[in-house]
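Give me structure tokens for this 233-residue protein.
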Amino acid sequence: MSACDMDEYLNEITRIKEKYEDLIEIYLGMEIDYLDETYNASIPYFRALPLDYRIGSIHFIPWQRPLSEANTVCIDGSFAAFKQSVEEHFQGDVWLLTEAFFRQSMQMVETGGIDIIGHLDKIYMNSSRYPEFDIHLSRYQQLLEEYIVLIAEKGLIVEINTKNYTRKHQTFPHIEAMQILYKHRIPVMVNSDCHSPDLVNDGREQTLALLKETGFRTTRELVNGVWQDITID
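Here you go.
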């Protein structure tokens, strides 16, 4: 979303919060990219917004200065574009980009300004198409565990993202990462990240069932303006 659209967004959500306040709780939130120390959820611009919650996510990895779209790698697009970026900017080594993703993710958590971690292991979506990459390898598991331990230390919530569930039977984090989240007693919330109103509940029921199988009994939800643990039915 362009900055010039911000006022319209804030005003519209505020309008419908007031219009439907007797029927449903509506909250004003935003997913904010962490790019570097100059652009992230902790800078004054984002802190001044009247948001109820902030999701911090990594979609772009800067590979050189100055910070610009041309100088970043998108980890969330097509595999063809991802592969080209690996070849051109990471010496053809997908592990260098994977490590950069986790370094930047940890910098995001350390910088703060967020309530929720968005799709914490999205890197595996494209990285897993390389034969030399495997989420079960110790080098990946070490990166993931270090990141999750930091999230636990900071007391953040982790999004269980169902955007690809119906199409690819895929969640972010991966179900095996959910087990690490459970081990560290990290609160989770389920979000379709759908980009389309008719898909707002896509994969929700199945993902809640996966969480219960993993051991989770609650999800963290905003209720009456307060984060609360709500039992998974």
